[in-house]
Amino acid sequence: MTNDNSQTSQVETVRSVIVTHQKPDLDAVTSVWLLKRFLTSKWGTAIVEFVPSGSRLDSTRQAELGVPDDQIIHVDTGLGEFDHHQEDRGSERVCATSLVFDHLTTFQVDKKKNQALLYLVEYVTQIDHFEDCYWPEAANLRYQLSIHNLLEGAVQTGLYDDDRLVQFGFELLDAAYAKLRSEVKADEIIQKKGQHFKLGKYNCLAIASSSKDVEKRAQKLGTDLVIRKDVASGHVRIKATPRSNIDLTPVYEEILEKDSIGNWFLHASKRMLLNGSPKSNQAPTPLSLVEVVKLVKLVLA
Fold first, then answer.
1. Crossing angle (nearest 10°) for helices 147-157 and 162-193
2. Is residue 266's pLDDT more than 80?
3. Which of 76, 121, 149, 223 is deepest in the core (most CB within 10 A)?
4. What are phi and psi of 195, to 5 degrees?
5. Which pLDDT does position 281 carry in this prediction?
6. How does residue 209 score in pLDDT terms, banded at 50, 70 and 90?
7. Whose CA is closest to 197, among 229, 237, 226, 234?
């Protein structure tokens, strides 16, 4: 009988560690977010450790974690590659987020053209350099609803420890990034597919797209009336800006004469004429975008 004395080696899984400062602000949180969201192969599953501002992870804690030096990265603390509190960087317009982003783009060159991400990094840089004091109506309380102030408010509630604060920040950044990408996409759709025309003094836009963001985006860019036909559902939305004097009542009346199939709703403001809504199940109109535009021009001209 042969005894099998072979030993089974156990390989300990090494986890990477991202170190930032306690009570992390927007710059710290966004730096961690960039690493975990975009450099996922190395930092996606990293744990986050918190140290006093300016400090580095001490050797005792590193030994407890069993993590080698090349699996640790410091952001917004420690005076390393991704910190900006060194004396020689004092006059540079950089922050931990912009430094991490520059590092990220050396691996993912396409991110240099990611307009949503570029805007987000610029936003964090402005906040970290207190440039929001130069924003239009800087004292307006609306800015207290911005990400950086929501993070500060979370600290002030006393309900968030550092881990929870980072997770809260991640949720805000994920949502903001999704919305920024949607807005950037809306700009592209308007530029490529938008049909611009004038009705008297009003700037108008007709567009075939399933993106509902093009409506508000176009109006923010100066369009007074937007006509959008959803290419997927066939629904049509006609929306005038609140600042305009456009009354869509005669358009509504004319459409009811032409369309006996689609369901239409005229908002009480008389600025929105809707065929289809995610809040209700309405039959789409058989009218094409060209037909709707022709009708609107005829009635409102």
1. 160
2. yes
3. 76
4. -110, 105
5. 74
6. very high
7. 226
* Predicted local confidence at residue 278, as pLDDT: 63
Can you give the residue range of the structural domain that contains 75? Answer: 17-186
pTM of the model: 0.88
What's the rounded mean pLDDT across residues 16-33? 98
d(CA 21, CA 74): 9
What gap in Å lies between CA 71 and CA 50, rounded to an integer? 16
Residue 279 confidence (pLDDT): 65
| 3-state SS, one letter per residue, for 220-253 | HCCCCEEEEECCCCCCEEEEECCCCCCCCHHHHH
* Number of residues that this document lists for the chain: 301
Q: Is residue 90 part of a domain?
A: yes
* Domain shared by 155 and 199, yes or no: no
**Residue 1 counted as domain residue:** no
Residues 210 and 89 in one domain: no
Last residue of a domain, one of 116, 151, 186: 186
Examine the domain organization and report whether 142 and 37 are in the same domain. Answer: yes
pLDDT score of 13 more than 60: no
How far apart, in whole angstroms, are the C-alpha atoms of residue 40 and residue 56?
23
- Considering the domain boundaries, does residue 208 fall inside one? yes
- 174 with 268, same domain: the answer is no
Percentage of the chain modeled with pLDDT above 90: 90
Angstrom distance (rounded) from CA 158 to CA 200 = 56
CA distance 170 to 154: 13
Residues 295 and 288: beta-carbon distance below 8 Å: no
Say if residues 19 and 77 touch (Cβ distance below 8 Å): yes
Q: Which two tokens stand for residue 255?
A: 């459409």
SS3 of residue 190 by DSSP: helix
Q: How far apart are CA 38 and CA 15, in angstroms?
A: 17
Residue 182 neighbours by CB under 8 Å, 6+ apart: 211, 213
206 has which bridge partners?
Answer: 195, 227
